[in-house]
Structures are given as C-alpha cells and as structure tokens.
Amino acid sequence: MDAVIQTLQRRSEEMPLHEVKNWQPFKIDALGLVTLLGAEEVNQSIGTLQRRRYTEYLPLLAAFLVAGDRFTAEQAGYSLYNLTDGIHTTELKGWFTRWLSTQKLENSSTSIFTWEITEDASGGPWNLAALALSVVTVMPLLVFTILIGDWFGVGNSIAIIASIMVRVSLLSQRRQAVEIAATHGPKEDQKDIKKLFVTRADGAMVTIYAPKSVVGTFTRDSGVPDLDLYHFVRWIGWATFGAHICILGMSSLFTQIYTVALLVISTWWLCSDMLWDIGRQVEVCGSAADNWKSEFVTSRPFGSKLKVVQENPGKTRKGTGRRLWAYVRAEPDEEQEAMLKHWTLLPFEYNKVWYNGYDDAKQQYARAKSSPVEAKKMYGDEEKGTSEKASVQTATVPQGRTSSESARPGAAK
Description:
Blueprint: H1 2-13, H2 18-21, H3 39-46, H4 64-67, E1 79-82, E2 87-89, H5 94-101, E3 112-117, H6 124-147, H7 151-183, H8 187-191, E4 193-199, E5 205-211, H9 212-219, H10 227-247, H11 253-271, H12 275-278, E6 281-287, E7 291-299, E8 306-313, H13 323-330, H14 334-342, H15 352-370, H16 372-379, H17 386-389
Parallel strand pairs: 3-5
Antiparallel strand pairs: 1-2, 1-4, 3-8, 4-5, 6-7, 7-8
Helix pairs in contact: 6-7, 6-11, 7-9, 7-10, 13-15, 15-16
C-alpha cells in the first residue's frame, strides 16, 4: 500500500503544473459560510420595506439576498378581493405579502387595516439614533483591526460597512417607489377608498380600507427612481459579499468572534419585529358600533407619508371573532354579497344555519351602531372593571366606510 502511495506522489510531481498544487500564499477558512445563514428570516424582514428606528443601519447575515434582489420576489398563497370594484387577484407584490404576513392578528379574521395618506412625517431623530448605534457597534471593529495590524480584519470591516450602504440604498429606492406611486397620482385616486378582503398564506383573512392609489401598489410593480443606479449598487453588493465570505475566515480570531456575534445579534434584533423598533403605537379605544373595546396599532411602514391603523376587535362572549363578523362589519350590499358567493368566501345558500346566523349578526350590528346600550349588551363586559371604565362613543361613519374606521386612537379612551 505504501508503495502505491509513493508511486502516486512521484507521478504527481512529474505533472507539468505540479507547483500550483503547493502554491499557498494564504489560507481560506470556511467560517465565511456563516454569512449564508438566516436567509429566510432576513428575506421576510427586509422584504416588508419597513423602516426601523434602531436596526436600520446594522449589518445582517445573508447579504446576498439584498444583492440578488430576492427580497422583492412575489410569494404564493395570497389572494386579494376588491369588494368595491369586484376584482379578485392573486398577483400581489412581494413587499405587501411580506408586510401582511408579519402583522400580528388578535383574531384570525376580524382585524381591520386602514391605509391613509398623510402629511410627510420626518424621521430625523430616529435616523440619527440608528446611525449612532451603527457607528458604536461597527467602528470599534475597524479601529481595533487597524491597531493590531489585522489587515484581513480591516477588509472584513470595510465589507461590512459596504454591505450596510448597499442595503440602505436599495431599500431607500424601493420605499420611494411605493410612496411616489401612492401619493403622486391623481387626487381622485387618493380619496377613492376601496374595501378589500385579503387572505394570507396561513389562511387568516383581514379587511383593508385603502385609497385607490395605495391599492395599486399592492398589485403593480412600482419602478425604482433610478434603475441604473439600482443595478450598479446591486453589483457592488455582490462584490462585497464575495469579498466578505473569503476574508472573514482569514481574519484574526478576535475579529471572527466579534463579526459573527455582531451579525447574529443584529439579525436577530431586526427579525424580531419589536414594536419599539418598527415604531408601532398601541392604544385601546371604545366604539359603540364595533366593539366595547378594540386595540388600535398605528404605524408608518416607510417612515413618511403612508400611515396604517390596525384595529383588533377585542375578544367577546358572542363569537364576534368569527370570519362571519368580518363580512358583517364590511356591510356589503346585495351585489357585493353576490361577488362574495362567486368567490366562495360565503357558503352556498343551502347552508341555512350559517345564513340565519349571518342575518342575526347583521341585525345586531345595525342595532349596535345606533345605540351604545345595545352595543354593550351585544359585546358584553367580559373583563370586569376594565369595561366599566371604557367610554363608549357612537361613531359618525364617513361615506364609503364602516363605523370601525371612525373609532381612531384617542377618539374614546
């Protein structure tokens, strides 16, 4: 056996390019492969396009997702039903489906989202906070690697900084594209409120009220402001990712430990979707028409003109968390009910038990809209002491909306 091995070694030395085999000016460690981890979580989080208050400028794992533009890919399993215009589509943009899937629903079918176009809201203080946090966490790595003479570590630090700049640039263009499409269209489209039902991949259904211009961004691609710059930045992202995956394994042990810890902690923080990082404000308000107590979650997904108010009706004794009540609160007319049957959102008419319950629920809802006393009887006060302190307000319903939209945070605290 030894003779065979020696023979093979001699033969290899006789090969014309045998010197290349022994060429080892440096070694590449497989540690750089850790940058491939966390791809699914990062794809889901940054794909929502939500602006973060603190983690906006932190480095993340799976930077190749950004360079490859994979965070914009469309997802299957979602359906949009435009009850106002009688349109059904499953072709929804990736940012919208990712955003919708990250929303926490108290009940699987009765949450209501209202999209609004408002005045520009400056996020200056939060941008400074996010930038300061990034400097505090990333710059020590760069400074220390210079002081110890770890030049591969310096390259690693530069690759991290470049990956942050690439992600910020691409996300900024995507956010601008959606906001421009939603806010720079005809004024009539911004005031024309559409009533939507959207089913998620997990089977949950939500009700959405949004201007026509905003609904268009759910289903149509919003072109980025500068396509050439977008492609150029993506190319830089690929180059940065390739350099990082090679250089990390050649850095000093301290640099490797610091880098891995920084990437993992930052990715976990961003993917956790913490309320105070996304900027969601939660309030509990009373509404005579829609619930004795509802939770309202207000957020600005892109940090500027678009605002979303999520209403989570409180759990009650009367079964108002069923999907049936989502249809009742939407107050469809006969034509819209016919569309719901056509889309198989409503059962076949021979299901008399369901339709009897549906008719009873519509009558209860109509009485609750007109009388705070009836609303309290209908929903009950399941939480002693809490419901007694809540004030009930009879909502004034704008045209084209249900009473649930008028119960805004601060209206009846």
